[in-house]
Amino acid sequence: MSTTNNINSKRKAILLLADGSRYEGTAIGKIGIAGGEICFNTGMTGYQEIYTDPSYYGQIVVNTTSHIGNYGVEDDEQESDSPKIRGLVVNDFSNDYSRKTADGSLQDYLEKNNIVGISDVDTRLLVRYIRDKGAMNAIICSEDLSDDELKAKVAEIPSMDGLELSSYVSTKEPYFVGDENADIKIAVLDIGVKTSILKHLASRGAYLKVFNAKTTFEEMSEWNPDGYFLSNGPGDPAAMPYAVETAQKIMEEDKPLFGICLGHQVIALACGATTFKMHNGHRGLNHPVKNLISGKSEITSQNHGFAVDLTTLKEAGSMELTHINLNDDTVAGLQVKGKKTFSVQYHPESSPGPHDSRYLFDQFINLIKS
């Protein structure tokens, strides 16, 4: 077992929600101030993958599982180059870690990456409150500021509704993943892609070129890919007309196209549906989804605060509903009629999470080969 002793010597921290709700706890991570939309993830494991998922950019994450930090951090579990969360709220923060393969403690990791957090919060109480009131902006502070000063800072945080964030997390320059001699070439539009998604595609015999979020279809098509992929990512899909236009042009070319989460929403928008901001969103590893084509159900990993409106999907007439969330009947998957295009509102790479949905990567590769 390894131990780190720099957990801010039990320094006080405050969590203040936009509606005035206030929680006191102990500072973890970097001493400072951090604000963003507060949301909760119900996963029992995989905290490092959650924190480094670009889809969480601009958000404060509440972990609902009681103990966080007890297995440390490991370089291989990064989903991007660094944590993308704005802040962290936990119940019991472990200063010790016992995993032999760990590269360090979570406290050191948070400090190194300038993540402000708070522990010793009754997260059951907090999550029930957010569940009922809905996701809202919040601020974490471990500095000496008054409540009035914190309220003023919360008021300055922009609403996630209407916020474009993909351009902040996307790669600046194109890069390649996989074997350059592979038979299949896939162009990836990075609007917040997770590393494990790229690994799953490459492991199935694909050579990937990952493009910046605002790359045009014309630029991507110059590489002459066999298929296209639209990634997950943060923010409001309705604030991304550039990606919607790219998706429309890909479908006009009629090469295989697969979208996950934000990519799924962009495809729906490109086909005439609309999206909406959810009361809470879905974030966790145990969301049940039914595949309406096979009739089978899957336990899925999810992370999204927006969803495709089912009524407008049906009214558009160009899409078929393929998957539905069994908790609230929201759209969980679609395919475009007459096109080689499909998408899902969850994470088949499941990092972390169950492996029920990894067949979707095989489905994409087989579509390219057909």
UniProtKB/TrEMBL annotation:
L-glutamine binds at S55, G233, G235, L262, Q265, N303, G305, F306. This is Carbamoyl phosphate synthase small chain. GO terms for molecular function: ATP binding; carbamoyl-phosphate synthase (glutamine-hydrolyzing) activity; glutaminase activity. One of its GO terms (biological process) is L-arginine biosynthetic process. Belongs to the CarA family. NCBIfam families: CPSaseIIsmall, PRK12838.1. Residues 1-184 are annotated as: CPSase. InterPro entries: Anth_synth/Amidotransfase, CarbamoylP_synth_ssu, CarbamoylP_synth_ssu_N, CarbP_synth_ssu_N_sf, Class_I_gatase-like, CPSase_GATase1, GATASE. It comes from Roseivirga seohaensis subsp. aquiponti. Residues 11-141 form the Carbamoyl-phosphate synthase small subunit N-terminal domain. Small subunit of the glutamine-dependent carbamoyl phosphate synthetase (CPSase). CPSase catalyzes the formation of carbamoyl phosphate from the ammonia moiety of glutamine, carbonate, and phosphate donated by ATP, constituting the first step of 2 biosynthetic pathways, one leading to arginine and/or urea and the other to pyrimidine nucleotides. The small subunit (glutamine amidotransferase) binds and cleaves glutamine to supply the large subunit with the substrate ammonia. SUPFAM superfamilies: Carbamoyl phosphate synthetase, small subunit N-terminal domain, Class I glutamine amidotransferase-like. Composed of two chains; the small (or glutamine) chain promotes the hydrolysis of glutamine to ammonia, which is used by the large (or ammonia) chain to synthesize carbamoyl phosphate. Tetramer of heterodimers (alpha,beta)4. Pfam families: CPSase_sm_chain, GATase. It catalyses: hydrogencarbonate + L-glutamine + 2 ATP + H2O = carbamoyl phosphate + L-glutamate + 2 ADP + phosphate + 2 H(+); L-glutamine + H2O = L-glutamate + NH4(+). Pathway: Amino-acid biosynthesis; L-arginine biosynthesis; carbamoyl phosphate from bicarbonate: step 1/1; Pyrimidine metabolism; UMP biosynthesis via de novo pathway; (S)-dihydroorotate from bicarbonate: step 1/3. PANTHER family: CARBAMOYL-PHOSPHATE SYNTHASE SMALL CHAIN, MULTIFUNCTIONAL TRYPTOPHAN BIOSYNTHESIS PROTEIN-RELATED. The active site is at C261 (nucleophile), H347, E349. Its EC number is 6.3.5.5. Keywords: Amino-acid biosynthesis, Arginine biosynthesis, ATP-binding, Glutamine amidotransferase, Ligase, Nucleotide-binding, Pyrimidine biosynthesis. SMART domains: CPSase_sm_chain (SM01097).
